[in-house]
Write a structure and sequence with these properties.
Helices cover about 35% and strands about 25% of the residues. The strands form eight sheets. Strands 17-20-21-14-13-23-24 form a seven-stranded mixed sheet, sandwiched between helices. A six-stranded mixed sheet has the order 10-9-8-11-12-26, sandwiched between helices. The model has no long low-confidence stretch (mean pLDDT about 95). The protein binds glyceraldehyde-3-phosphate. Glyceraldehyde-3-phosphate binds next to loops.
Length: about 550
């Protein structure tokens, strides 16, 4: 079957019953001040990447709509979070850690009950395969549970006094205030929650804006948020980032900007804040992670990991391998195997078993990728796999481009899609120079079998990227590992335990060691008068 014949959209009548959408999901609800309110203003239509076949070709199916807030409504939502924070005096900010944990446990329990709806909408909104959508949901639940455990650990070590140079102190981590949270479309649930949940559990209040593509899938969780947290602790904003997030930042009332997206958007939003020194930023940004295939690499393994690394979820991962340097001695063999592996990937709808390549949700994305490939071909490359770059509707069949010219956009730009640029090297200095000169510094994969060569690369390269993967694709997980980047790839470090730190500030209560102060501290602890000065030990 030709590649073009494989790029087919389903007949809506033939969809399995649990996947069919009864009708468009019109989401008018938004959460503010502990209430789910109904939006009466303009709405944004949601077009699924999953098209309907028509006599004139595939057309994106409209699956719903969501509120399009303006600055006024976004600011009103922010005010709810500001009131709930109440200058650090609000019930959530001053609550005991054990009680906050109980609220988050309640949330996760309610969240699990909505799993099927969220997974279904993940498939319809961003065409993530069912297996990966389920993994995203379950990984998020695990992340919340691991966060609770990490906080218990942190709290246990803070539940004691230290006495230094005649001063008694108790040191804890205190919340920072109002957090503006916005995640990316490719992991709309997981990556958003890796910032939202730690921010919340540490006592901050949150304004949360779901990603532009991936709004409806958060709708089933609105009641869980409303029923699990005090009013104003979680509030939602919808609409264009520029229209809503810019005025929020310009208000000066956002204390933490937690954002996973592009560095351009992050920079513009940070600049909108009138007192940048008061703003903490936690950013996950773009990357162009290279793979380096050495001449002695196990090519089967390298190909397997490069396919996973560059094409999982169609390459729409910030951690994806986005360029491959292969030693010229093994380049032909590598390309042959890579093309074969790509040809074996199943193309289809997200709910099909074993599917790997699905339609792309971003408007204009197939045109952008085609342009990148066209330019790389003009500059001396060719598409080496059969049918590579074929477009049908929102489908873009993976294209392996070789050799990719250093003059091409594909060499530098983060394609964030199913195009695999490959180029040969003779001298290891060539890929090293690429990493050094890159704007990005997230991760790197190195494929080889000689420990000496690999070890010689490790020491300089760990000062360029924040994770070096040996014979393994680039990835974020396990979530206990630090996830960050240098240069334009990140600000701050996220992991289950690091995230608890980035949304807080070390704060202490201290007293000169004398009988009066000892009596005050003893009575405070014994009669549980404070949630901060406390030796309660959470088991
Ligand atoms: O966009 C970033 C990635 O999705 C991070 O997570 O490596 O687990 O896909 P991942």
């Amino acid at each position: 079957m030709s590649v073009a014949d494989r790029l087919v959209f389903p007949d809506p009548a033939g969809l399995p019953a649990d996947l069919a959408l009864a009708g468009p999901v019109e989401q008018r609800e938004y959460l503010v001040d502990g209430e789910i309110r109904l939006w009466e203003g303009p709405m944004q239509e949601v077009a699924s990447p999953i098209c309907v076949e028509t006599p004139t070709g595939p057309v994106q199916r409209v699956i719903g709509s969501f509120p399009l807030f303006g600055a006024k409504e976004a600011l009103a939502t922010l005010e709810a979070a500001v009131r709930a924070w109440d200058n650090g005096r609000g019930p959530w900010a001053t609550m005991s850690v054990a009680d906050r944990i109980a609220h988050v446990e309640g949330f996760v329990h309610r969240m699990i009950a909505r799993r099927a709806e969220v997974v279904k909408l993940l498939m319809w909104e961003i065409a993530k395969s069912r297996a990966d959508s389920e993994k995203e949901f379950d990984r998020t639940v695990d992340y919340v549970r691991d966060t609770i455990d990490a906080l218990k650990d942190l709290d246990r070590t803070s539940s004691r006094f230290v006495i230094q140079q005649g001063i008694i102190g108790q040191v804890r981590r205190a919340p920072l205030g109002v957090v503006l949270c916005a995640g990316p479309y490719n992991d709309p649930l997981n990556e958003t929650f890796t910032i939202l949940i730690p921010a919340l559990i540490m006592g901050n209040t949150v304004v949360f804006k779901p990603p532009r593509l991936g709004v409806l899938l958060h709708r089933p969780l609105l009641e869980a948020f409303r029923d699990s947290f005090p009013p104003g602790v979680v509030n939602t904003v919808y609409g264009s980032g520029r229209e809503t997030m810019t005025p929020l930042m310009a208000s000066g009332k956002v204390n933490v900007f937690a954002f996973i997206g592009t560095s351009g958007a992050a920079d513009a939003l940070k600049k909108a804040h009138p007192q940048p020194h008061r703003l903490r930023s936690v950013l996950g940004l773009e990357a162009k992670n290279p793979a380096i295939v050495l001449p002695d690499a196990d090519l089967d393994l390298a190909v397997r990991e490069c396919v996973l690394g560059s094409l999982s979820f169609n390459g729409q991962r910030c951690t994806a391998i986005k360029i491959v340097f292969v030693h010229s001695r093994v380049a032909d063999d590598f390309l042959r195997r890579l093309s074969k592996a790509v040809a074996e990937l199943k193309v289809g709808m997200p709910w099909e078993d074993g599917v790997a390549i699905t339609p792309l949700p971003e408007p204009g994305k197939t045109g952008y990728l085609s342009e990148l490939v066209r330019e790389a071909v003009r500059l001396g490359g060719r598409v080496v796999n059969e049918g590579g770059g074929t477009v049908r509707g929102t489908f873009f069949y993976p294209a392996i481009v070789y050799p990719t010219s250093p003059e091409s956009r594909l060499y530098r730009e983060e394609q964030f899609g199913p195009v695999v640029p490959v180029l040969p090297f003779e001298d290891l200095e060539e890929p090293i120079r690429y990493v050094v000169e890159s704007k990005y510094g997230q991760q790197l994969s190195i494929f080889g079998t000689d420990a000496e060569v690999i070890a010689r690369l490790i020491d300089p390269m760990v000062n360029q990227v924040c994770r070096l993967n040996i014979n393994s694709q680039c990835q974020r997980g396990p979530d206990a590992f630090p996830f960050t980047g240098r240069k334009d790839s990140a600000e701050g470090t996220l992991s289950v335990s690091d995230a608890l730190r980035v949304f807080t500030i070390r704060t202490l209560v201290a007293a000169k060691d004398n009988p009066l102060n000892k009596a005050i501290i003893t009575r405070t602890v014994r009669d549980r008068l404070s949630n901060f000065v406390s030796t309660d030990f959470i088991l």
